[in-house]
Predict the 3D structure of the following.
Amino acid sequence: MGLFNPGSGTGGNRAKVQRLDMLLGMLGFFAFMATIQLVVLEVRGEPAVGSALFLAALLLLIWLAWRARRKADV
């Protein structure tokens, strides 16, 4: 039983692509918000190392999800 499609397995290739699209959307939203936070912190002159590392981690996750999405779309 799959997490996103209980009762019928994983749901096939199309369902996997849809789940990855949803993940990309959520990660993209949070990366956008983290970018705004980082810019605000930099403009104010406050320490922004933690925010920069968080944004880098989000961008890495977006890249990995994008690669998985491209492989699943074949």
Notes: The first helix runs from residue 12 to 44. Helices lie at 12-44, 49-72.
